Amino acid sequence: MDSCGARHYSGGVIPPGPTMHDLAPALATGDRRALARAITLIESTRPDHRAAAVALLAALPRREALRIGLSGTPGVGKSTFIEAFGLMLVGQGLRVAVLAVDPSSARSGGSILGDKTRMEHLSREPRAFIRPSPSRAELGGVARRTRETVRLCEAAGFDVVLVETVGVGQSETLVADMTDLFVLLLAPAGGDELQGVKRGIMEMADLILVNKADGELLATARRTVSDYAGALRLLRRRPQDPKGFPKAMPVSATEGTGLAEAWGEMQALTDWRREHGHFDAHRAEQARRWFEAEVRAGLLARLATGPARAAMARLGAAVEAGEADPVAAAAEMLGQMADLSE
Question: Which of 44, 97, 314, 335 has the most C-beta neighbours closer than 10 Å?
């Protein structure tokens, strides 16, 4: 075991290889094994590993990849689309990282993590990297350390980082706060499907792709694209969008049609945002929100340790027994937190 306690973490034993002190230079060379071990490190909940992860992130080279968030309704074919889309990008000479977030069981905390099985061909590509992570009850469709994992992938020299969320829901919009583009993948359906998608997630989407636009579903897919295009025109235009965005397009992951066109639209939108200063401004705002989120998470973590934990247990028991009002007990707890921090 090295000075960072690198041999063990909360989920098991880290495989033998470079020490944690070697991870930063190994990542800079694009070492996939080092990337996998670095992600394991930052996902660990051990305090010593957390300190090592913070030091690692500070030592990483500053590189930039195009970050693309992808969400969609269950059964829409997200994994099939990502594999076809990723293979197309790899074929163009790009390095692609896929961060797939799987829902965790609320009872056991377990997660299937089956994306490598569903993306069999892409997982064998040397220029691709797939990392499934459990959501662990985190809201927003992303894992607790997704932002940090994106930074690791960028440091490893990947050109495109795809973040696949758990699935469509109002909270899924969090992924838009850590990516450059947010793509919403939907299936061909009738008019009721439009009612089932929350306005919030549509307002965040940069591109709506209607998948399975092939065979007998082709005509239905085209009608669905028309329905969503009409709905998008009713939304207030965002300052970070050129004319015509956001837009809806048909694609077929199984046949590979529409993928090149969708990629072209993503590149065009990114280029426009770079030219007009929106890209850098968005990244800066995301960095600030990341900082604020880390501060909030740190404050919540303090409630589970030391004197604060005992006070929480005492006041919680009083509230449960009906001996204290929840609002008054919360105010007392916050007062004690302020005293403890002085």
Answer: 97
- Domains of the chain (ranges plus CATH)? 8-59 (1.20.5.170), 66-276 (3.40.50.300), 287-341 (no CATH)
pLDDT tens column, 269-307? 999 999 999 999 999 999 998 899 888 888 888 888 878
**Rounded CA Rg of the chain:** 22
pLDDT of residue 338: 72
Average of pLDDT values for 176-201? 75
CA–CA dist 144, 134 (Å, integer): 9
In DSSP terms, which residues pair with 132 in a beta bridge?
100
Residue 61: cis peptide before it, omega within 30 degrees of 0: no
Nearest of 244, 245, 243, 253 to residue 221 by alpha carbon:
253
Query: How far is Cα 27 from Cα 17, in angstroms, rounded to an integer?
Result: 13
pLDDT at 326 over 90: yes
Q: pLDDT by residue (tens digit) across 41-79?
A: 888 878 888 888 888 998 888 899 999 999 887 788 888
Question: Of residues 4 and 92, which shows the higher confidence score?
Answer: 92
DSSP state for residue 252 in the 8-state scheme: B
Gap between the Cα atoms of 332 and 302, Å rounded: 16
This prediction's pTM: 0.83
Identify the residue whose tokens are 């973590």. 301
CA distance 9 to 7: 7
Which residues have C-beta within 8 Å of that of residue 260, sequence separation ≥ 6? Answer: 88
Residues in the chain: 342
Q: Which amino acid is at 67?
A: R
Cβ neighbors of 120 (< 8 A, separation 6 or more) are 83
